[in-house]
């Protein structure tokens, strides 16, 4: 019997990428699923495949940046299943742009989805996860929540915030001896459509950015990412790194401290997508 058998798991951003892979892996391990996304076409396909694996699925359109909607969603999920054991706060978007070329709205949009979406999901479901007596909150940060990259200031800010929020929450749960584990996940480059769906500042070419990510950075499959995450959940790990790039660059940052920034600058001058003339 799987450690996930009979557990009710909430997965946001389940319409593609890591979210879909998590949903299907959880389905195959006997979990009951509450799946959501703003991409209803992709979500429908995930639901079809999860149900084919025998999972009971509740499917909903959900914009995680809308707090009241997320709060209502949590109540609806509990009403449907009677409990919630796990939430995978996975929904996220990407943006590429320097600070001086990024509007306040560009930055706010990333923070609203990538940080506040995690906070909204965590706060909405935490009381129910505690009540389950066997709870786990899994928040998806990024390699860019461990070190900064030029032109990723908004994304870095959101993902660093997810890391800090999650690590603090984990310590709070440990101090309170609450029946809730907390795991923060730092994926490196994953073979998803996140870069192709990303927005960019006006001085960058979106196609160039997407091509650079897909060919140079995306090394790990969503399936491998999902398996690594679930392995970490089973072991109750506080932090999960995904991909050799995440492991190597996390080590680099630990060893060099702030000096890693000089290396990143040198590499970026040669490798990152160029700005428009």
Automatic annotation (TrEMBL):
The keyword Oxidoreductase applies. SUPFAM superfamilies: NAD(P)-binding Rossmann-fold domains (SSF51735). Keywords: Oxidoreductase. Belongs to the short-chain dehydrogenases/reductases (SDR) family. This is SDR family NAD(P)-dependent oxidoreductase. The lineage of its organism: Bacteria, Bacillati, Actinomycetota, Actinomycetes, Mycobacteriales.
């Amino acid at each position: 019997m799987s450690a996930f058998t009979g557990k009710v798991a909430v997965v946001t951003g389940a319409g593609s990428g890591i979210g879909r892979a998590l949903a299907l892996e959880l389905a195959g391990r006997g979990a009951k699923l509450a799946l959501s996304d703003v991409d209803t076409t992709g979500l429908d396909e995930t639901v079809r495949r999860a149900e084919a694996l025998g999972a009971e699925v509740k499917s909903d359109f959900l914009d995680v940046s809308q707090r009241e909607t997320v709060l209502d969603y949590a109540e609806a999920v509990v009403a449907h299943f009677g409990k919630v054991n796990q939430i995978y706060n996975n929904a996220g978007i990407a943006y590429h742009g320097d600070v001086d070329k990024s509007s306040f709205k560009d930055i706010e949009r990333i923070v609203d989805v990538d940080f506040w979406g995690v906070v909204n999901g965590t706060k909405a479901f935490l009381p129910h996860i505690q009540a389950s007596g066997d709870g786990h909150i899994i928040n998806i940060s990024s390699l860019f929540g461990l070190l900064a990259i030029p032109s990723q200031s908004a994304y870095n800010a959101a993902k660093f915030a997810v890391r800090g929020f999650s690590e603090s929450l984990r310590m709070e749960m440990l101090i309170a001896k609450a029946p809730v584990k907390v795991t923060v996940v730092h994926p490196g480059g994953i073979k998803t459509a996140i870069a192709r769906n990303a927005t960019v500042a006006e001085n960058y070419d979106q196609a160039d950015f997407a091509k650079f990510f897909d060919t140079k950075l995306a090394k790990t499959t969503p399936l491998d990412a999902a398996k690594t995450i679930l392995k970490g959940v089973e072991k109750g790990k506080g932090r999960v790194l995904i991909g050799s790039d995440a492991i190597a660059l996390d080590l680099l940052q630990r060893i060099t401290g702030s000096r890693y920034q000089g290396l990143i600058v040198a590499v970026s001058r040669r490798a990152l997508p160029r700005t428009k003339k």
